[in-house]
Protein: SLC13 family permease
Amino acid sequence: MTTELGLVLGLLAAAVVMFALGRPRMDAVALIMLVALPFTGVVTVPETLAGFADPNIILIAALFVIGEGLVRTGVAQGLGDWLARRAGTSEPRLIALLMLVAGGIGAFMSSTGVVAIFIPIVLRIARRAAIPAGRLMMPLSMAALISGMLTLVATAPNLVVHAELMRRGHEGFGFFDFTPFGLPILALAVIYMILARRLLGPGQAQADPQRRPLSGWVEEYDLAGRERRLRLLPGSPLAGQRLDTADLRGSAGINIIAIERPGRFRPALVRPTAATVLQAGDVLFLDLQSGGFDVAGFARSHGLQEVPLTGRYFHDASQEIGMAEVMIPATSRMIGQTVTGLRFRSRYGLAVIGMKHGSIPVAGPVTGERLRAGDTLLTVGPWRAIRRLQEERRDLLLLDLPAEFDDAVPARSRAPMAVGVLVLVIALMVTGAVPNVLAALIGCLLLGLAGCIDMTAAYRSIHWQSLILIVGMLPFSIALDRTGGIEIAAGALVGLAGDAGPRLMLAMIFVATAVLGLFISNTATAVLMAPVALAIAEGLGASPYPFAMTVALAASAAFMTPVSSPVNTLVVGPGGYGFGDFLRLGVPFTIITLGVAVLLVPVLLPF
Structure:
């Protein structure tokens, strides 16, 4: 062993130990390696930093943005809602649908993002169906990991293996080359989890207790008794009038919170302003400041029809209408003034429907009540207006948001555009009309132009830790190649396999990759194992594709520990899992995946 190889292996061993201990965090370890590797003299500084210009790194970042576009437009959440409706209370059907939907979405966006989206959805479904959350979180994480076996862009290890093939002069994998392997594994995983679900602990994690649902505020402020919905019938004298002309607040004490206007596909929420013109068919969402108001008489005299309103309405409309509790600080310029005098709705786009002096709710009309320091206001209106409250510091302090705030979709009306952009990106990648990275960047630009995502959300959606991890580990493949480390590792594996043939060699590569993945991330595992597998293929005089595919499949088969992948880590808390739960279910299914890979890969990708 040369001195240079010893130094490189020493750094690699140090990185593996730090990854296994979790200290420091993974991206910090990668940065340490970026700084340390040039001092070995094996790689230069430009070579060490070349990963930042790698097209696959840009592609991964762009895919994070596209995935966020699907989240912000409600496409991913809509699939989750469909899942809840179709599954009902049947646990096997729920597991099957959950895994198929999560796997399908994960084929086109980050598997970590898929799990983050589905955790609150699964918790709600579990509560509704009286199923322990621990029975559903493990199937979710397993499906998300297997989604990485479905398409080229589904997970970073696939792109790492693809890039290594191209670096060695091969064509690389096509977009759907992974699908024939991933689909049967996903089908087996569904059957496996349905049969093995009872091995999971019965405990169920609780939802975040710090945020109450909208229905809780409805009950606390008695809104179900005060709020009304009235539809303008054809011929109503209010039709065609501006709100400032109608003056419903001054004449009848009616506070219009929102206007639901019929649309082509679904009602649109119109923010009420002085210049808003009422139309026949509009549904007025009202807050009655006076408890003795004659709603029926007012409706008859103004050509209106009362529409039933229950606490459930706030849940159904939670994608459009939200609530927030705000406090008047001692430095506020609002102290001593009234909500009406402040023109609160014109200023903030929100209606004040409840007030507390300290902990005592104000009975009766609140819009004329003088504001005091420490008062709490309950506001209602569009989520976009509530989000702007987070920037307010002097006159209002945002105290609390309902649980539905985390699930609200900022650009729901643009969902068709997001789906269209996704279809276009996939078509460009499948046909090869443009390079994959360019197709993804085109998709990002189109999502921005269509209003599906803004620049702030785009930058925030990128998982920079994963990108730094890949960039920091890539130079190791160059360093190990130059110092002969890859040949030594390949020779060791070949020596262990003896004369058993290439199929057993695939099994050994799979096992080595899976075992290494117990200690470091699957992305780093792919970075280290891909050149070893290709060196073995070259030494055997075989095609590199079955060996590269085996590394990719094994890297995604990170089922055995909660630290093998961020996907597993995310479900530990909500599922109430321990280390043994992953071992008990993950090890058998890893063996099943190994069997599928060894049997199927040589058939579809001959040696």
User: Anything to note?
Assistant: The mean pLDDT is 79. The two ends are 32 Å apart (CA to CA). The longest helix spans residues 579-604. DSSP finds 28 helices and ten strands in the chain.
